[in-house]
Amino acid sequence: MTLIIISSPPSLDLEPIELALALAAFEQNPTLLLIGSGIHYMNALQQEKKPNGKSPSKVISALPMYDCEEVFVRANSLAEQGLNQADLHDFCRLISDDEIKQLINQSKHCVNF
Amino acid sequence: MADQKLHYTLVLTHSPAQLESNLTAQKLAAEILAAGDVIDRVFFYQDACYVALKSQIPGQGLEASYKGWQELHESYQLCLQACIANSLRRGLLDKVEAQRYQSEENLQSSFQLVGLGELAEACQSSDRIITL
User: Fold this and answer.
1) Most A CBs within 10 Å: which of B12, B19, B124, as the mutation test of the A interface?
2) Radius of gyration over every alpha carbon of chain B, rounded to an integer in angstroms
3) What is this structure's pTM?
4) Helix, strand, coil percentages for chain B (3-state, nearest 5)
5) Which stretches of chain B are DSSP H helices?
6) Domains of chain B (ranges plus CATH)?
7) Residue pLDDT, tens place only, A10-37
8) Hey, are the CB atoms on A19 and B86 less than 8 Å from each other?
């Protein structure tokens, strides 16, 4: 299992998410872990970041449809970043720091953004 | 006898103009290869694609960001792959894409443009993936 860890704020072209979708398309079972300012990727109210750009919310809401169903958000990052669980896509699961350690230990690879 | 060498993939994501991760990665790659291990590929993603820009003019006495990679490619046949979608977005074109978009080729010749399937292959076959 490949774990994609995103700790940087959303990029204009959602390139880390594109990688997750590509790995899912190649049946690599990617798991996403959002921490720090990376959790804003999962804010369901995100608007297009550039004219005629993709809607981040629509792209991200398609993750489960592409078999990228494991999406974790660090629980402690929510308050730090001024978000509530209700702001996130409903398929996101909150995860504690202890569970994050386990998740990293279980992963074959970690790719960081 | 089983291959005891470790197989690595390096993934670079940052602009060579802003962070030193490109130079760190070059030194790491040189050490891995000198130790006799294998680097399956170096994959350039997001702003790291700019490493492969042939037309860059470094300051006097400085080297282009691709120089160290070019030397490793020539010495070890190191496979240097830039994500094609990320590269096109940033205006990096190889010969084929330059013809397709009626523009000028500007990808340094040691690099190739590839799809994300190569990184998926790396996740399957490499022992270690290191992101810099």
Assistant:
1) B124
2) 15
3) 0.92
4) 40, 20, 40
5) 21-34, 67-76, 84-89, 95-100, 117-125
6) 7-54+65-131 (3.40.1260.10)
7) 988 899 999 999 999 998 889 999 999 9
8) no
pLDDT of B79-124, one tens digit each? 999 999 999 999 999 999 999 999 999 999 999 999 999 999 998 9
Interchain CB contacts (distance < 8 Å): A and B: 43
Q: Which chain B residues are closer than 8 Å to A26 by Cβ?
A: 117, 120-121
Residue A42 tokens, joined: 């999962």
Measured between CA atoms, how close is B60 to chain A, in angstroms? 32
- Least Cα distance to A42 among A1, A70, A66 occurs for A70
Catalytic residue positions of B, numbered: 83
Instruction: Please state, as a whole number, how many other Cβ atoms lie within 10 Å of the Cβ of residue B92.
Output: 27
CATH number of this structure's domain A1-6+15-75+108-113: 3.40.1260.10
Whether the predicted interface score ipTM is above 0.95: no
Helices (H) and strands (E) in chain B, counts: 5, 5
Give the one of B13, B85, B86 whose C-beta lies nearest to A113's C-beta: B13
